[in-house]
Amino acid sequence: MHIKSKVYNNTLYVVLCGELDEHSATHTRITLDNIFSGGDFNQIIIDLSELDFMDSTGIGVLIGRYKKMKSRNIPIFICNPSKHAEKIFKMTGLYEIMPKIV
Amino acid sequence: MEVEKLNFMEVKFKALSINESFARVCVAGFCVQMNPSVDELGDIKTAVSEAVTNCVVHAYPKHNGVIYLRCEIEGNNLKIIVKDEGIGIKDIEKAKEPFYTTKPDEERSGMGFAVMESFMDKVVVEHNGDKGIVVTMYKQIGNERLQVNNA
Questions:
Q1: Does A96 touch chain B (CB under 8 A)?
Q2: Interface confidence (ipTM) of the complex
Q3: Which CATH superfamily, name and number, covers A2-96?
Q4: Cβ-Cβ contacts under 8 Å for A21 (sequence gap 6 or more)
Q5: Euclidean distance between CA atoms B92 and B107, whole angstroms
């Protein structure tokens, strides 16, 4: 898992590249928390266009980040999910807390 | 002489998270002979990943045991068996409920079995004798194309 990020117009853009499963979950959690700990933004957009694989472990990782950002009142949005990621998001109701944007 | 219709492959590997991607690629590689669609291959990889993750996270709390993976192909029917010899699951029906997790502190979604059931045609979860769990998953390959052709 490789994570790219940049802040533009008060928005933190994060691109997850690679595979998000149990093996990469801890690294992903730590890296995202590190990036999110900066304060120069008021919303986060997670771009999944370069995510090659994700299973339900990814849901746990995303919900964990949502909880941390909720306490700071910073909303998180999802964009460009694969068909399979989308299926898992819809099953779990993730879009209710992290809406999908186009 | 009758032609043997069943094809199979078996591997066993240590219950380490680094082997999850190996398991996914291994099953996907074997299934290529069924000429699956990209979507079907994604369904299979996701379901395998969930089953193997369960073994890695839950089956062996004290040591890294072994995971047994077997795939069978008969015609357009795929059967995947993921087996461990770990501590087992006390209440299988409870474990299969969406959002149920025994490790809520670890940011786990509790959606593993629900994802397997959603991505495969049928999932059977059983005790492996008195040691561990056997997950058997079934999927018919080519269903999507049949539906398109019949439309």
A1: no
A2: 0.92
A3: STAS domain (3.30.750.24)
A4: A53, A54, A55, A57, A58, B17, B20, B21, B49, B53
A5: 21
Is residue B53 within 8 angstroms of chain A, CB to CB?
yes
pLDDT tens digits for A69-101?
Answer: 999 999 999 999 999 999 999 999 999 999 999
Pairwise CA distance, residues B104 & B32, whole Å = 37
Architecture of the domain delimited by B6-150: 2-Layer Sandwich (3.30)
CB-based contact B115:B105 (threshold 8 Å): no
Q: Which of B108, B117, B128, B144 is catalytic?
A: B108
**Is B108 tagged catalytic?**
yes
Q: What is the pLDDT of residues B31-77, one digit of tens each?
A: 999 999 999 999 999 999 999 999 999 999 988 899 999 999 999 99
Please count the CA atoms within 13 angstroms of the CA of B93 that sit on its side-chain side: 0
Amino acid identity, position A70: K
Please count the helices (runs of H) and the strands (runs of E) in chain B.
5, 5
